[in-house]
Design brief:
Elements: E1 10-15, H1 19-29, E2 35-41, E3 56-59, H2 67-76, E4 82-85, E5 100-103, H3 109-120, H4 156-166, H5 171-178, H6 182-196, H7 201-210
Parallel strand pairs: 1-2, 1-3, 3-4, 4-5
Helix pairs in contact: 4-6, 4-7, 5-6, 6-7
Length: 216
């Protein structure tokens, strides 16, 4: 029996200095009915009891993160996934042992939705142009070696299924999105695992992001 029950709604906490920015981000996030903004704060010191219910944090500072902010983040939410909306980073911030990602302030709603889903699944997400030039290993939490040879070409349908996997969809949801049967979805997933040399959904999505097979 398939054990693939995805959480239906993800709780999001938005932190940004200005009310208009917080409101705009909240509207953008909640344009996806599977995402719910449970709180909007001006700084991490306001997180308080909200943090217990949060699935993904969104942080939108208008200037480089201060040491005080970083320390507060580490104390208040040491393990919550965090999405940073930022200008290009001069250096990688030390968020501690957490899954985090970075997108630009100009990221589209679809890009933000996909990043939130990926972070909630334990994937690390980044726009390469925002990373320091010296940055060579884009996975501070965990690292998996790249395959020794390029994977076999995925079919158009397999690429569609892989995109859905990266967005955190369950098999029934993928079937509904692509108008195919659940058994056909399972067949495509098995083929994707084989071609990418992976063993589960998270590894497949991670490999797809690395190789540019998944659109952010």
């Amino acid at each position: 029996m398939e054990n693939d029950n995805s959480k239906s709604v993800l709780n999001i906490l938005i932190t940004a200095a200005f009310p208009a920015l917080r409101a705009g981000l909240a509207a953008l996030v909640e344009s996806d009915p599977a995402l719910r903004v449970i709180a909007q704060c001006a700084s991490p010191v306001e997180w308080g009891s909200h943090i217990a219910r949060v699935d993904v944090l969104i942080l939108a500072p208008l200037s480089p993160l201060s040491d005080d902010w970083l320390k507060t983040i580490q104390r208040a939410a040491p393990s919550k996934p965090l999405l940073l909306l930022s200008h290009p980073l001069a250096a990688l911030p030390n968020f501690g042992a957490r899954v985090w990602g970075v997108l630009s302030f100009t990221a589209s709603g679809d890009e933000i939705h996909l990043a939130i889903r990926a972070l909630s699944k334990g994937l690390w997400i980044a726009e390469p142009g925002l990373l320091p030039r010296s940055f060579s290993n884009p996975e501070p939490v965990s690292s998996h070696p790249l395959p020794s040879r390029p994977p076999e070409n995925l079919t158009r349908r397999e690429l569609e299924v892989l995109q859905c996997l990266a967005q955190g969809f369950a098999n029934k949801e993928i079937a509904g999105q692509l108008h195919i049967s659940v058994e056909t979805v399972k067949y495509h997933i098995s083929s994707i695992y084989s071609k990418l040399g992976v063993n589960n959904r998270t590894e497949a999505a991670r490999s797809g992001v690395r190789q540019g097979l998944v659109n952010l």
